[in-house]
Write a structure and sequence with these properties.
single chain, mainly alpha
Amino acid sequence: MLRHLDTVLGFSLVMLLLSLLVTTLVQAVIVLLNLRGWHLARGLARLFVQVWPDLDRATAGKIARAVLKHPAVAHTFNRATSAVGKEELVQLVEDLVANPVVRLEPTVREALRDCLGRSSLPESLERWFDVVMLRTTERFVASTRAITVLVALVGALGLHIDALSIYSQLATSEELRVELLQKLENWQAQTNQLLVQPQPSSQQPAQTSLEEILDQYDQIRNELAQLRLQLVPSPLPGFNYLEWLRMDPATQGEAIAEGQRHLLGTLMTVVFLSLGAPFWYNVLHQVATLRPIVAQRRDPKPSLGRRS
């Protein structure tokens, strides 16, 4: 029982570290593509159309991009900001009309001036800002999940990371299980620091720079490389049709069965990594909490005999 529990514990830890690798890659994609800013611009465009129904979507999109690239909030090299508050938005929109220095097409500026003259922006934002931004955050989270699945799919299939093979190696190697148990507490503490971050939101600025993300990636990759665990088969498996034809029927059947098993294990890895690092951290914590109880039941302390 304890051996099986240690195997599950080691497997959960490996899946956690691999999931953290996927998470860092997803964060790098979000930063490189400025997905927060992109979703925020689309959300602001929807908000402007909601507040001013006569405003067409194209003009609303230009106003939203101008707001996020306003000199007061834009990042270096005129990169759109990825966060804006309600009060801040009112000031930025009003400044687009009043400040001729801000770049904005004349027709768009006139349309915005007309909209501001017909309705009070602060009152309209008070009614719709939170609702539209909540939907924008949901879309951002959905796109993040899609990127996570895509990265897990490409990584697992491209590197042939086989979950069944990983579990088999842990189940048959006591030394490997002991090694993982010895590093468990340290890795749990490091992982907890990486996971203690606010929930993803299109209204929140990126908390981690690209350089920090890449440092985290290198750190996790080095930890996995130190394990005596074959995550990536060497050489990578492939199918040689001519060699397969030379095999006898029994060997061909075994090769097909092994290929099917490997494909199943790789697809399982895709599913496991798509669950995300927080899922595996919770699994690891629960199994680690259960282990001392199972160990104590297996090796109970001898009871003291009665004195005569």
